[in-house]
Amino acid sequence: xxxxxxxxxxxxxxLENREExxxxxxxxxxxxMGLSKAKIDEITPDNTDSEIYEQLITVVKEASSANLxxxxxxxxxxxxxxxxxxxxKKVPSIAMLF
Length: 98
What we know:
The chain is an all-alpha fold. The chain contains seven helices and no strands.
């Protein structure tokens, strides 16, 4: 990969990231990103909550950039399971979906 191709890919990724953070669920995404590790660790004693937390952030990013409805976002969170729902409920703007 040459430097110009690398720069094009980097610019594309930066635009995608910006769309995700400025998209429909930007407040929800910021709320999730603002949760402390201690707050997340309260949910389960092992590390599964951290893994689910990362998946949850990805789901909200994708929902934001794809402009999914609240019902679709809720369904995606439910698919991740109970830990994702518990983490989501720590963010008021996502908790209202449940």
